[in-house]
Each structure stands twice: as C-alpha cells, then as structure tokens.
Write a structure and sequence with these properties.
- There is one protein chain.
- This protein has one domain: Growth Hormone, Chain: A, CATH 1.20.1250.20.
- Helices cover 74% and strands 0% of the residues.
- α1 runs antiparallel to α9 (165-186).
- It is an all-alpha fold and 391 residues long.
Length: 391
C-alpha cells in the first residue's frame, strides 16, 4: 500500500516534532565552557544543567499521559512544544543561575509532557506502518540532537549572536516556535479527534514496561553524561579546539542508525541490538578517557551510534507491544524510569569528578550503566514482528 498525501503530511509532523524534542536541550553542551565561566558553576551544577530536563522527562511523563487524555494528542503536542519554545528562549534572560535553572526546568517540563504523545500518534496514524513512522519520528529526535551540537559553535549560531550564549539559546527556540505553529496549523484534523484513552495512569506492575524503561535509562545515562562532561574534560586536558567536533560526532553518528536498521532489521526485533550496543558503549567510554589527542573523535562517533541504536529499538516497542488504548500510558511508564535513570547517573558522575578532581571518575558510572543495560536486556520479551492494530 502506497503512502497518500495525508500520510506524507503526518510523517512530516512526526519528524518536525521529533526535532523539537531535543533541539533546545542539546544547544547547551557546546556552550558549557562559556556558561561555566560566566556563572561560576561547579561540575555538579553543569551535570544538573544538562541532565535537569532529563529529570523532568521522568517526573512529567505521567502528567503528559493525563494531558493527552484531556486535550487530545494534537492539543498536548501544541501545548508542550509551545512551552519548549518560550522557556527555552528565556534561559539566558538576566543572565543569572536561578533564571537559567528555572527556565530550563520549565522547558524540560514542556518536553516531558509532549514526548508520550508521539508513540500514541504513531499508533493512531500508522497502525500498519509502525516501523516506518517510528523511524521518521526517531530520525527527527536524532537530528534535533545533532543540529545544535554541529551548528552552535564555532561557525554557526554563536558567531551570529556575537559570542553571546544567551542569544544563541534563544535562536534555537525560534525554530521550535515556527515548527510548533506549523504542527498546529497543518497537522491532520483527525489528530484533534483521537479518542482519549480511558486510562492514563501507568500500570507499575507491568514488568515489561519497567524492564524496558530501566534498560533504556542506562543508554540515556551514558549519552547525556557524555554530552555533559566531554566539553569540560577536553577543556581541562588542553583540547578545547576539539569540543565542537567531538560533540558533533557524538550526536551526528546517531543518524547512521536508520541505514543500520534498514540493512539489519533484526536489530529491532531481538535482544542483539541492546546487548551489542551496551558492549560498544562501555568500550567507547573507556576509549574517550584513555585515548590522547584527537583519538577522542573516533570514540565519540562510536558512542553516539551505540546509544542511538538502543534508543530507536525502545521507541518502536510501545506501539508494538501495548494495546491500542494503552500506548501513551505504557510510554509514560517507560519514559519515567528511563529518564530518572538518565538524570541520576550523570549527577553521580559529576559528584565523583568534583570529589576526586579526575575526569576519569566522571565516566565510570556510564561504563557501569552499559554493563547493567546488557544484563537487563537479557530479560526483555521483544516480539519477532511489528504488531498492527486491526482495521
């Protein structure tokens, strides 16, 4: 069955929304040295700045499920994306640390209440093409993670704002605002009439959702931890000029997961995607710390690919394994556990760095998370093929 014009519009909405979920969050790491120096932050504060929105993804995932039940999928998307645009722009107002962290908190809240809508939207719009729709949505997220790390410094947004990190953050929010308007105006009307799920509170006794959330949390912890600590690690070791290319490769390599899945579709249907990713993640983090000079570039590339592969596998699971009316609440349970883990582990890493004074200790929790991810993945029950809703 060929895609219709309406299908292409829906895929575009999924792609733009996926970009918006990460665009403002990942604009921070390239600017960390500037923010660090101007606001006199320690490493724990740096870790909280990058992973703070991640904590909100955990805390507000369940309220996001409730928002979908009350406003419908499109209403929840526009509300959440609007909050991302507004508060993402206000992060540098002042500037002061309280304003930065308060606005970051509210921006993260917007991301959190928006994210559970996408798996439900995938199931609603593409019940027979869940894999394709998930690939498009996840590709948007990965592009949203890559663009700010590549185009913030040194030849992108920051020079255009005359080196002012505050205006650089606001610039990325403008793009979110524009795409939010597009989604609000152009999203198919059917999205506003999606039947609200009768249940929104997750079933915390559902072992499958808990296992998926914890396993994915380990991969997210390694990813966000690397984004948080690579800039200061390279700055401390006299390789400041490698910050931008290292972050660009860490995030840009994630885009290769789509062709990898296309060549080896079994990565989406078995445990091999998780277990292989975990082994590569541990090896890459060791390489980042132990390899001198420009060798960090190669390891950043490998780490980004490994974490993204696990991420894409997880995104495809709720629409495949949950009943049609339960996709949003199962997604909320997974995101709660995933991002709670992704917040706590980098925070521990920053505390270890502060206590020891050695960058090596900031990456040890990420290596341990990779080992835990491989162990937890062995207990997952992943269906052999994508399940479609009945017509």
């Amino acid at each position: 069955m060929r895609l219709t014009r309406a299908d292409w519009v829906r895929l575009l909405m999924l792609w733009l929304g996926g970009i918006d979920l990460r665009l403002t969050m990942l604009a921070v790491p390239p600017l960390i040295p500037l923010i660090h120096r101007e606001l006199h932050l320690d490493e724990k504060a740096v870790g909280a700045l990058v992973s703070g929105p991640v904590l909100l993804l955990a805390i507000a995932a369940v309220p996001g499920s409730l928002l979908i039940a009350k406003l419908g999928i499109r209403g929840a998307l526009v509300t959440g994306l609007g909050a991302i645009a507004v508060f993402g722009a206000l992060r540098g107002f002042g500037p002061s640390a309280p304003v930065l962290f308060s606005a970051t908190f509210l921006m993260g809240l917007g991301v959190a209440v928006t994210q559970p809508a996408f798996p439900a939207l995938v199931r609603e719009w593409f019940p027979r093409r869940i894999a394709i729709a998930t690939a498009v949505y996840s590709n948007g997220i990965l592009i949203g993670e890559t663009l700010p790390t590549v185009l913030t410094t040194p030849f992108g947004v920051l020079p255009l704002t005359h080196g002012d990190w505050r205006w650089a953050l606001a610039t990325w929010s403008v793009l979110v605002a524009l795409s939010t308007i597009t989604i609000g105006l152009a999203a198919p009307k059917r999205a506003s009439r999606v039947a609200a799920p009768s249940r929104w509170w997750p079933d915390w006794r559902q072992g499958q959702a808990i296992r998926i959330g914890i396993v994915m949390g380990m991969a997210s912890a390694a990813y966000f931890g690397a984004n948080a600590y690579i800039p200061d690690f390279l700055d401390q070791t006299g390789r400041h000029n490698l910050i931008s290319p290292t972050l660009a490769l860490l995030n840009g390599s994630q885009l290769l997961t789509a062709p990898a899945v296309a060549l080896w579709p079994r990565l989406l249907t078995g445990r091999a995607g998780f277990i292989g990713s975990a082994a590569i993640m541990a090896m890459a983090q060791l390489g980042l710390v132990l390899t001198p000079g420009a060798g960090v570039l190669g390891w950043a590339f490998v780490l980004g690919f490994a974490t993204a592969l696990a991420f894409v596998v997880v995104l495809s699971l709720p629409p495949r394994v949950a009943p049609a009316g339960d996709v949003a609440r199962m997604s909320a349970a997974i995101f709660t556990l995933q991002y709670a883990t992704a917040f706590v582990v980098p925070l521990i890493a920053g505390a270890l760095w502060d206590a020891s004074g050695k960058a090596l200790f900031a990456f040890i929790p990420g290596i341990a998370a990779a080992a835990a991810m491989a162990w937890g993945a062995m207990a997952l029950r992943i269906p052999d093929r994508v399940q479609s809703a009945p017509s």
